[in-house]
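user: can you give me the structure for this one chain? tokens are fine.
assistant: on it. calling the predictor now.
[tool input]
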Amino acid sequence: MDGLHAAIEKMRAEGLGDAAVESFRRQYERLAGGESGTLAEADIEPVESLPSFADLRNTAIAEVTDEVVVIKLNGGLGTSMGMTKAKSLLEVKDGLSFLDLVAQQVLHLREATGSPLPLILMNSFATREDSLAALERYDDLSAGLPRDFVQNKVPKLRVDDLAPVAWEADPGLEWAPPGHGDLYTALAGSGMLEALLSGGYRYAFVSNSDNLGAVLDVDILGWFAESGAPFLMEVADRTSSDRKGGHLARRRSDGGLVLREIAQTPDEDVDAFQDTSKHRFFNTNTLWVDLKALAAVMDDGAIDLPMIVNRKTVDPGDRSSTPVIQLETAMGAAIGVFEGAAALRVPRSRFVPVKTTNDLLSLRSDAYVIGTGRAVHLADERDGQPPFVDLDTDHYKLVADFDARFPHAPSLVACDRLEVRGDVTFGRDVVVRGDVVVEGVERVDDGSVLEG
């Protein structure tokens, strides 16, 4: 266990707290003990039916809305899109960023319910300063509570001896985020969990800051509180585009709900994992947590979530660099920890993530609109189906390149599919209809209508 001792010393030297160290220690001991972090198809069975959002009745009452806090995961830098600041600071529509719209959603709900509804961010060290500065224009979003808490980090481990890796070329690459399952450890270790409970807050609504469809819904809140469930996951119907996302299942051993990620799936079970007709529901990463129940299952600031073993190289951009293991957890995996945890089938409109510039173009276009309560959703004409966008990654993958080529988002409200091949710049007021492939031109002129 020399590797564990060295890793803990490294975490202590970095100033990481007891809860973070304890959580890492448990994961490390599982890895060193031979656990693979996988969940075999033979050990689970599909979920056949779930309660549905469409069947909920309005059960929220003032006492319940007074007891809920909104937590947004805001640790992502958008590095896959070439960003060096919080992805949530990207402009979405009308000069507004993700964080602007999240803040406005919360303020609208405050006015509608008369409840405090604090907005709290879980930042990373890299996103904290810029994000908090961006929200200073909004008065007291945290309702007197600390405005944020910071997620932890863990040492990357050498594959050969499980010792913390050293990388003198860039010591920052010696560390990895522990996955969003760190939410619970960071809540406890930062003192935020205690502050929320002391302030009279019983429930937390948790979602990603780049998912503008995930707005606190008072009907779901009321149903959750009335059900007495300690934990609730919002899930949606899987389509072919969700084949790699974590899906819901039941343990064969006791019938309890579990979340299985692709990184937890043995190679021989990948086809079953990706069978959307068999495993029908995917995790939207929007959760509801009973904070009292959470405090009860925490042990020394840690919660026993399933381990995810992520194998990479210490420098992700250099495949010849030292092979490492990143120990991670998923926050949705807590559905398998809480006895009596539940899942709710919600419409796709509550899931509007942005992972690539393809998604960003759709969101910036008129295919999406800002609706009541500042929620962002598909235009009515879309009939619930987003346009399919496929941009040439050689020219559009990075945000700076994307913005240079799309200074103005085209109209996609009547577009089924847009594929762009090569280096093409789009002018103002371009309209795309139906199924379109753009290739062999350097520029699409202002006012062009693209069809066929």
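assistant: here you go. Residues 98-113 form the longest helix (16 residues). The longest strand covers residues 281-290.
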